[in-house]
What does this fold into?
Amino acid sequence: MKTPLQIAVTGAAGQISYALLFRLAAGELAGIDQPVVLRLLEVPEAVAALQGVVMELADCASPVLAGVVVTDDPQIAFQDADLAFLIGAKPRTAGMERRDLLQINAEAFALQGRALNTAAKRDVKVLVVGNPANTNALITLSNAPEISPRNFSSMARLDHNRALSLLATHTGHPVSEVSRVAIWGNHSPTQYPDLHHALVAGRPALEKVELAWYRDVFIPTVQQRGSTIIETRGRSSAGSAAHAALHHMRSWLAGTPENDWVSMGVYSDGSYGIREGLVYSFPVVTADGDYRIVQDLPLDDFDLERMRANEAELLAERDMVRHLLRS
Ligand code: NAD
Ligand code: LMR
It folds into this structure.
């Protein structure tokens, strides 16, 4: 019997977690021979509702689920955590931008960073989903100085999946034949969904689509998809967000397929001239539980202008939360 993976999930009574927890309990993250303990964090007011979710988890009788911890104390939630999904945060509603959530959600991430610092395993892998995800990840890692900043990431996988799906639909190919799309920058409308390196059935994607469609339809559709979901559904994305979170962690643990990559918000090491120390989405290759930023992609002025706009936006967000950053 393998040692159970300790998986912390914050905002565990929320809508994304409701779409995630049952999949974790079913073994979709690391396989059905890998037991998991779910360590669920909520605010005190939501703990009672969370107990109902825990009853439902029990009712699945999953052999993968080796235990459940319910708490409103981050120290307990993150105790010996191998993986942490930081989902707990207020979502935006129609008319808001994600950065409008910064002041509302930021303090909780500073607190959770400090708790991860004392309680989690030193090699914990952290995924920040709560918005604005990149800057919340920066706050979290900055408050966890004893854990490598490389262990913290923010979610760009939903944007990456949106880009894959849109390109596949437009070109009439299955998603399995699309590779190497990239999301650069911030999980905001400024993000840069890049098709310059993408392949469709082994051919450059930009040979298969018109440049005008790429620039005037594809890019804004991916950038605005979160808002479109909110306007259409009345609530922010949840099923697709949970799916992206699961796959983000799965890629990080199990690796990316040969000749492909995924997009992850990671601590910038200065690659492509992006300011070191920001949490910025890059195309990354993962293997053996680690990742590396894909290097040496040729970039033109169109790319650089958009990548710089994201850097500037993230620097501005960082300035708004400077009081919560330790370094
Ligand atoms: P939700 O309101 O349904 O659930 C959020 C839960 O978090 C609530 O149960 C709330 O009680 C809990 N919570 C709030 N503060 C907490 C704290 N300090 N500690 C623990 N729990 C806390 O929201 P949701 O739809 O599940 O979305 C959660 C977050 O994810 C939002 O910020 C949303 O904007 C974001 N999101 C990000 C992406 C992405 O791609 N990065 C995609 C979708 C949603
Ligand atoms: C999304 O991209 O769907 C989420 O970040 C939710 C939002 O606020 O757009």
Summary: Residues 211-233 form the longest helix (23 residues). Residues 157-318 form a domain with the L-2-Hydroxyisocaproate Dehydrogenase; Chain A, domain 2 fold (CATH 3.90.110.10). The chain has ten helices and 14 strands. Residues 133 and 168 are 26 Å apart (CA to CA).
